[in-house]
Amino acid sequence: MRYRLLTIAAVSLSLLAACGNPLVVGPLVAAPSTTPPERPTREAPPPQQMASAAERARLHTDLGSGYYERGQMDVAIGELNTAVKLDPNYAPAYNIFGLIYAVLGEDSKAEQNFERALQLAPNNPDIHHNWGWYLCQHKREREALAQFEAAISDPLYRTPEIALVNAGRCAQAIGDNAAAEGYFRRALSGQPNNVLASYGLAQLAYKQGRYDESRALMRRVIQTNNAPPEALRLGMCVERKLGDRQSEASYISQLRNRYPDAPETRAIAEACE
């Protein structure tokens, strides 16, 4: 699965985990969602003779980021190689290198590039977030949480809710539900319509038997147009626990109609844990 840049993570993070089960953190790039390099624009770059090496490195990093987003990893690597030749100390290029090599499963290269990026820009919250997500994906959750905290603590970080949600998912993965709830609530405090934070809290409430609270949180989630099967199953399980057969049937209908081949749909008849 592709490692998404931070802005993308905010809108495309998969809502993972079946009802009541510990959350398995998904790619982000959780998402996503932050100040990742922009996609290539159609604006003509400044003439080579007028642009500084740093500016040209930025432009090639932007191009590499765009190719990364489209899954053209070989072209992205070419652009980033050009960027670091122009400016060997341009930290954002190493950040994108880290994401790309993570996608390619070349973990040693991914780690080397994330570490190089942080060496060059130790206070960059985007790099802290991406590195934290990578660590969480590789079962180094406690280290990951420290990186998320570093991103969140930056008062200039434009989307701390993304790091908060991903920290919550990472805490949930190791069973630290109190910390997870704290992260999700902080995300909702800054962004009341954050669907991922609502879903995380709904999962926690369900697991702790607070079904009415979970139902209220799930209503926010289901209002979105593209609630994934994981969320629909959680809603189904909440209504099953509360004995509301009509609402349960509504979730079942949505699962069958929208996701006929999903594992959650095939498991409709199974007991909710």
Kindly describe this structure.
This protein is mainly α and 273 residues long. The protein has a domain at 1-146: Serine Threonine Protein Phosphatase 5, Tetratricopeptide repeat (Alpha Horseshoe). It has helices at 6-12, 53-69, 73-86, 91-103, 107-120, 125-137, 141-152, 160-173, 177-190, 195-207, 211-222, 229-242, 245-258, 263-266. Residues 1-42 have low confidence and may be disordered.
List keywords for this structure.
mainly alpha; Serine Threonine Protein Phosphatase 5, Tetratricopeptide repeat; elongated; disordered N terminus
The overall average pLDDT, rounded, is 85
Q: Give the strand tally.
A: 0
The residue ranges in which pLDDT falls below 50 over 5 or more consecutive positions are: 1-42
Shape: elongated
Looking at CATH, the homologous superfamily of the domain at 1-146 is Tetratricopeptide repeat domain
The sequence of SSEs as H and E is HHHHHHHHHHHHHH
CATH class assignment of the domain at 1-146: Mainly Alpha
Q: First CA to last CA: what distance?
A: 28 Å
Number of helices: 14
Gyration radius (Cα, Å) is 20 Å
DSSP helix fraction: 55-70%
Global structural class: mainly alpha
Biggest β-sheet, characterized?
Answer: none
Strand content: under 5%
Q: In the CATH hierarchy, what is the architecture of the domain at 1-146 at level 2?
A: Alpha Horseshoe
The CATH topology of the domain at 1-146 is given as: Serine Threonine Protein Phosphatase 5, Tetratricopeptide repeat
